Fold these 3 entries.
Entry 1:
Amino acid sequence: MSEGEPGADVRRDANRTMSKLAIGVLASGSGTNLQSIIDAVEAGRVPAEIRVVLCNRPGARALGRAKAHGVPCELVDHKTFPSRELFDERVVAVLQERGVELVCLAGFDRLVSPPFVAAFPNRILNIHPALLPSFPGLHGQRQALEYGVRIAGCTVHFVDQKTDHGPIVIQAAVAVLDDDTTESLTARILAEEHRIYPEAIRLYAEGRLRIEGRHVRIVDPPAGNGSLANPTPRC
Ligand code: GRF
């Protein structure tokens, strides 16, 4: 399945929508997005099973969060690999060994290589702390603040071969206040991230996402907000 294929259902086998989606979460840092996913799965709001939390930094808070919830986790320290390709090869192997169907990048601070993306076509989601296509790359919140936008936000999107570029699933907007600092804006954006990331995973798990070129169509979108800008979450 490739980007541009009309109506491609990202969970093609309808029967699989009845079973729990096997997800792998990749994290590098504090892991608050990971926590929002764990909480939503534990509460039964997302029909998924976290098969593995893969972390590339020893001592990252994300690892402790996984352990505290009995979620399988694995440390794959990128510094112990001679190249990005070999690191990604190991990451892909771990995800495949665990039977992961959907990969969720949640504060993962490594760029994913083309072979990694090719191993999981239209099966990698990322959360970005800005309203893409504005402010891709690092420090999206700071970029937005320095640019002087009135509305910032966050984006859940499919990962393709270009950084912060793939088809957009959900965005949430956050007003920028006159006295905002990078820290205060980051905190309000993060709260929205924690709402929309589990929601996007739920929609995927329920087989309700169709990729049509750059557009992600949502089958039976949540009531009252067809555009899914600041969707009323069910999670
Ligand atoms: C989030 O702002 C996410 O959008 C970005 O990195 C941050 C990770 O935070 N990609 P956390 O580790 O989930 O707390």
Note: The first strand starts at residue 8 and ends at 9.
Entry 2:
Amino acid sequence: MKRLVSGIKPTGDLTLGNYIGAIKQFVNMQNELIDTEFFIFIADLHAITTPQERLVLRKNIKSIAALYIACGLDPEKVNIFIQSEISEHAELNYIMESTLYIGEMERMIQYKEKKESQTEGIRTSLLTYPALMAADILLYDANFVPIGEDQKQHLELTRTAANRFNFLYGDTFTIPEGIIPKTGARIMGLQNPEQKMSKSADKSAKDYILLIDDLKVVANKIKSAVTDSDNLVKFDKENKPGISNLLTIFSALTNISIKDLEEKYKDSNYGTFKSDLANVVVDELSPIQNKYNEIINSKELDDILDKGRDRAKLIARRKLDKVYHKVGLGRKK
Ligand code: ATP
Ligand code: MG
């Protein structure tokens, strides 16, 4: 049986970018990769690489868990758990910090970007984030890691860490492979289509769509998305980033190719196109929100998280014992 690992940080309410770039992919894969065990977690340790309000963090953790289910992850097929409840993630993180080099961390684009946008002290963990990510993946000997474009560089570093550790101490870790979705790998902001839609960036609410946004608000956000003035529905990322982003969203949610959409809307203006897209997004989110409301405060959700934790813990502990042994830590057993 192969394994797949991925997670999302509870740094804010989930956006349509997280849905298209991550959760929807997980859901598709759970149905396609039948000989693969899934480990999908809520990356709360990663969240505190930047300041978080404790009660908000708590709320976000639960909210992501509920959204995983509401979006269609099947707890019968997928182990859903909270990262901090498996202490082995933090323990293997330290081993990864002792495997990777500072220069390798400093080269990460996401670190450079996030560092720029911060006014307070920059936490050490923001720099060493890729070590924890490597731990998350290698702990479970994941074969596959579904990632957005923005995580490509981090995954490469995970592979470096695994190869280096295996070279130093003997074969220990599986080298993971990234799976990047073909369409919708990177959803951009509705107001700033040059920048990616993000749940934590300090932007106007019109820039992003939250999965739990009021549906009327969702439709309005789409209708007021920034576009150009030539009123031609055509994919051209360079010159028409706004409409290209909307085409990407449309295509990702309907599985209609961008080419077919261009053809369909070749004689339409942006108003018609946006109005149709608004309906598509609302139809997608409506059942998700119903299920979310049903499960968010339920015992069922806690039971799912307990079950996921127990299964993850079992594998993680075994792996970590093996790692400590290989490195020569502690006493011989
Ligand atoms: P943060 O701003 O805190 O980094 P985020 O919205 O980027 O939040 P992450 O927790 O970093 O979310 O990422 C969760 C998953 O969602 C990752 O797989 C990431 O690639 C994907 N993802 C995030 N933003 C987008 C986006 N705009 N388009 C596509 N995928 C995205
Ligand atoms: Mg991110």
Note: Residues 2-181+298-327 form a domain with the Rossmann fold fold (CATH 3.40.50.620).
Entry 3:
Amino acid sequence: MSKTPISVAYGDGIGPEIMKATLAILEAAGAQLEIEEIQIGEKVYQSGVDTGIHPGAWESLQRTKVFLKAPITTPQGGGYKSLNVTARKAFNLYANVRPAISYSPFVETKHPKMDVVIVRENEEDLYAGIEHRQTKQVYQCLKLITQPGSERVIRYAFEYAKRHGRKRVTCFVKDNIMKLTDGLFHHVFDEVAKEYPEIEHDAWIVDIGAARLATTPEAFDVIVMPNLYGDVLSDVTAQMSGSVGLAPSANMGDHYAMFEAIHGSAPVLAGQNVANPSGLLLAAVMMLVHIGQPDVATKVHNAWLTTLEEGVHTEDVYREGASRVRVGTSQFAEAVIERLGKLPSHLKPVTYTATSNERMSHTESKIASKVEVKQLVGTDLFLDWGPGLPDHLGEALRKVSVDDLRLEVITNRGIKVWPNGLPETFCTDHWRCRFRSASESTVTPTQVVELQRRVLEAGFDIIKSENLYTFDGVPGFSAVHG
Ligand code: NAD
């Protein structure tokens, strides 16, 4: 078999120790790899590269398209960009796959039957990194959910379930509140689910879903969710399985893939030969499947399960009674190497085949966008104003109009304060003023610009505006509450 080129970064903190252990196991198992070592992380940041990754390292990644990455330390203080976020966006790694499995009774856990895979959307949501300070009091972070972005990750979750023999895909959203953004994710989930009738599907509101997941994880199989919920809940499930040191993560795109442990560089443990290399090792197993070496992946995974059930444990999972020997990082690797070729007798052995492959062959949209007519029906002008009473603002803005494009309502932090607001409502210096055609007809962009000019002329500070559109008559903006 020819060797597959991969890029490898040893990272910071415990990174070099766990990477060394992982690569020793892969080599002993007969993985056919041509390793290109690249430099990333703390030293690179400190040398003045704000992305934490050298230009030469990008070239290697562009060549190999496969990245096995140890955790890095992100320096404290501003000005540094997250290397992970940069890599995910640069290489379009839209799906973050995070299995969390219990190994009871060999690893202590309150949830002995947990076997959950979280598929987290990896590029969008509040992680688009679009934040603004708009007034003295108010800061904003833009939550972006797109139809193609949602469709890709949701389709990925269903394909993953199909290829790995999983029975159900669940979606977590908060669309009772975020009706447009999370509502879109939920709608796309329902549409994609129709293409996989053999796989069960259901959707939960994220808060009650998370509560159920934390108490009854065995009720779930594959769970797909937007970025922020997935980030938080995949750490929770990893810890629930017994240790964050056990959990792997694969960042998948159509052309590139990045494999890593979910934990960080744990500086407090660095250089002591105590860290658990399992998260990175299991990520490397996912990588072997991805690059078409499923037999080696099977061999490594089964040797690792055997090591675990024979009670050879690193500090983080060692428990008197359940464990037999406490070992360091390198001894744990040696123990796995000694067991290569063995199958576990209590834990379920794994078998990977070429079809377990995580790679997606196509992700073009199959959900047709049916919108025929997009119409401009008004504008929300956001003002930095005050201190002052909402009625004073309303009275002043009522005098400003363009044709029948007039002030309809004012909200503060989303709550209606004019007309007929409640005097008790707490107001900041950030006001959303909605102007719409009084005759409910469409308006022109020129009218909106003219309105802005008149509002400025009246002495107001517009800090942003959002156009209000309907799509085939359906409002593309949230209604005002209160
Ligand atoms: P962390 O995950 O590094 O460690 C938290 C704690 O978890 C450790 O103190 C340790 O008790 C335990 N732990 C983690 N990995 C372990 C392992 N393999 N074996 C045994 N115990 C383990 O989180 P942190 O301390 O908040 O972050 C440290 C640094 O890592 C920060 O600079 C952070 O930015 C960075 N980080 C990097 C990545 C990444 O590169 N993907 C991810 C998360 C955090």
Note: The longest strand covers residues 374-384.
